[in-house]
Each structure stands twice: as C-alpha cells, then as structure tokens.
C-alpha cells in the first residue's frame, strides 16, 4: 500500500523521518502529545506492543504527520471543533465510528474525521497512517470562494475516502508530492505553505463528496434554475448599489415573493436578499482592494453599499473573506 499511496521518491515508512515528535510506550505521554497537536483525548490499551510513534510538521494551516500506536488501542478524542482530520493508510486497519456511522479504514480506503462530529477509533496492531490536520475555517473559506457566497453550515465530508479510483489516486499523488517536500526540505517558505493549503483543500473539495459537492460541480450558466431566478440574479448584479426590497425583485421577475423565495431556496440554496447581501459584500471587497488606506474609508464604502450596522457588517465580511475589512484595505 505504501508504494500505491505514495508513488514518489519518499517511501511511506520514511515520510517526515526527520520530524519525530513522539516515541513512547507510555499511554499518558501519548495522550499528552495527542492533546498538544489535536485535542483532548482518551487512549485505552492493554497490548504490550503499544508504542506510539508520531512524526509531524506544520505547513501553514495544515499539519501533516505519520503515526501509529503499535499495538491494539482504543482512541476516543473529544469533538474536534476547529479542524478536520484526513487519514490515509500505510498498512493495517482501524474501525472508526464517525457520528452514528462505522467506517472501515484499511488498504484502499481512508477516513475523514469531520469537525464537530464525535469519533471513536479502534486501532489494530501494526497499523500506520498518514494524517493531515486541516483547519475547518480554511475549508469553509475556500468553499465560499468557489461558490461566491457565505456558507450557513460547515463543509461535511463523507467519512469514507475511496482511494483505489482515478479520483482517489489523483488525491494521493498530490499528497505524495506534499510529503516529499515536507520530508526533504528543512525550510518551508510562506509562499509554498500557502500553496500547500490551497492545493490540498481544493483537492479535498474536488475529489471527496460533501454537502456542497453538487453545487460546486454545477454549471451555473446552464443550470436548471427557472428563468426568473436567473433574471433576478442579473438584476441584482446590475443594481446592487440601489435600494432593493424583496418586493422589488418579485415584481421585476413577475412572480410572487413566495415563488421567488422557493426558486432561490430550491436552486441556489439561499434567499433572494441573502444573495443581494453576498453581491454587495463582494463589491465592498473589490472596492477596498482598489482603495488606499485612510481614515474612514471602510465606513464610507460600507455605507455606500447599504451596510449601516458596522458591527454586523464586519462579522459578515470576515465570515465571507476570512479577514476584516481593515485587513483587506491594508493589502
């Protein structure tokens, strides 16, 4: 499995060999290391072969590692609120409970532990894996950028990762490239770290099914949305600087407000007024990028685009673009 998953110059057994973080047969020490890089956790094992080994390195918003518990063990992490954990097998198997689903982790199939979902791992003897810790905000932000709107729910991946398909092999080849560089380069430039973040998350969003997959794959130019939805979208794009009510939009589209809401809910997974707010946030973002930094600029631009409550505006803006308006202005 090592050669299949990592078709590269670095054998799976040697990934991050120079970045040893932990090698211990002491359960309490293993728990402490797991808490430091992941979250609070419980580990149970009576196997005399228990020997936790972790090699680990940060790369921007990612944490890439190789790990094993040696012998049989039960791992019960607390709910991971700030990150998801991608697990790719080198050898062996685990039985992983994710929420109310039980997933087999073995050759040809990895597992994703989603943020905010309880998990339990039954680790079998001589199992070793590659792990990638991915900040949840980074996943959400990149998905928002692709969709062009704020997500109301986190991205939730299907736990099972099928690796013996074209898509699975593409994903693991990309991961092998990352592991090569992280294993053999002592210094990692911020530029390359940012490239790792973007490439890994884009591959994850592309290859692994999740609750926004259908929308990401949709060609909005030729979608099956009713014509009145498309007309309203065009109208909003052209007139976002004007005062607009939902009644104005329904009248322009020639449908009832109820039909208008239903059309946007069913075909765009949003509401007409939320779509209008997203367009206006994007216009503010574009204008801030073009503006020079000076006192009152953010307030002036926000008011121009209809955002009268600066506190709510700043919260919505940061959720959408991953930074405050002032940070955008300073770029």
Question: Short description, anyone?
Answer:
This protein has 2 domains: about 1-215, Jelly Rolls (Sandwich), CATH 2.60.120.10; about 220-330, Homeodomain-like (Arc Repressor Mutant, subunit A), CATH 1.10.10.
* Main sheet characteristics: 7 strands, antiparallel
The CATH homologous superfamily of the largest domain is termed Jelly Rolls
| H and E string | HEHEEEEEEEEEEHEHHHHHHHHHH
End-to-end gap: 45 Å
Which strand order do you get reading across the main beta sheet?
1-3-4-11-6-9-12
CATH architecture assignment of the largest domain: Sandwich
- Regarding CATH, which class of the largest domain? Mainly Beta
Could you tell me the CATH topology label of the largest domain. Answer: Jelly Rolls
Query: In terms of structural class, how would the helical and strand content be classed?
Result: alpha+beta
Mean pLDDT: 89
The amount of beta strand, in percent, is 15-25%
Strand element count: 12
Rg for CA atoms: 23 Å
Sequence-ordered SSE layout with sheet pairings:
Layout (H helix, E strand, L loop, with lengths): L1 H4 L14 E5 L2 H11 L3 E4 L7 E8 L2 E7 L4 E5 L5 E9 L2 E5 L2 E5 L3 E5 L5 E5 L4 E8 H12 L12 E3 L3 H19 L5 H18 L5 H5 L9 H13 L6 H8 L3 H12 L3 H19 L6 H8 L5 H12 L3 H5 L2
Antiparallel strand pairs: 1-3, 2-5, 3-4, 4-11, 5-10, 6-9, 6-11, 7-8, 7-10, 9-12
Structure description:
With 331 residues, this protein is of the alpha+beta class. The protein contains 13 helices and twelve strands. The strands form two sheets. The chain has a seven-stranded antiparallel β-sheet with strand order 1-3-4-11-6-9-12. Strands 2-5-10-7-8 form a five-stranded antiparallel β-sheet, with helices on one face. β3 and β4 form a beta hairpin. α7 runs parallel beside α10. It starts with a helix and ends with a helix. The mean pLDDT is 89.
């Amino acid at each position: 499995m090592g050669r299949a998953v990592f078709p590269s110059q670095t054998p799976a057994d040697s990934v991050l060999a120079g970045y040893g973080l932990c090698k211990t047969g002491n359960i309490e020490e293993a728990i402490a290391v797991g808490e430091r890089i992941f979250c609070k956790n419980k580990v149970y094992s009576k196997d005399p072969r228990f020997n936790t080994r972790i090699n680990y390195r940060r790369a921007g918003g990612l944490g890439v590692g190789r790990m094993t518990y040696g012998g049989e063990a039960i791992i019960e992490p607390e709910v991971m609120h700030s990150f998801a954990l991608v697990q790719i097998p080198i050898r062996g198997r685990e039985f992983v409970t994710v929420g109310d689903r039980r997933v087999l982790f073995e050759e040809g199939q990895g597992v994703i532990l989603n943020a905010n979902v309880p998990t339990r791992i039954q680790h079998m003897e001589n199992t070793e894996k590659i792990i990638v810790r991915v900040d949840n905000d980074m996943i959400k932000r990149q998905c928002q950028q692709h969709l062009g709107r704020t997500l109301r729910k986190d991205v939730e991946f299907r736990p099972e990762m099928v690796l013996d398909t074209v898509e699975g092999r593409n994903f693991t080849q990309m991961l092998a490239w990352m592991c090569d560089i992280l294993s053999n380069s002592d210094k990692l430039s911020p530029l390359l770290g940012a490239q790792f973040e973007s490439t890994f998350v884009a591959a994850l969003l592309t290859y692994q099914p999740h609750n926004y997959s259908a929308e990401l794959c949709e060609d909005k130019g030729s979608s099956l949305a009713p014509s009145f939805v498309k007309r309203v979208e065009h109208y909003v794009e052209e007139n976002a600087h004007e005062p607009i009510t939902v009644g104005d939009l329904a009248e322009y589209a020639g449908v009832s407000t109820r039909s208008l809401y239903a059309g946007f809910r069913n075909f765009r997974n949003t509401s007409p007024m939320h779509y209008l707010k997203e367009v206006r946030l994007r216009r503010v973002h574009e204008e801030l990028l073009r503006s020079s930094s000076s006192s009152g600029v953010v307030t002036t631009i926000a008011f121009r685009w209809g955002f009268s409550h600066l506190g709510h505006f700043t919260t919505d803006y940061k959720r959408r673009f991953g930074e405050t308006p002032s940070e955008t202005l300073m770029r």
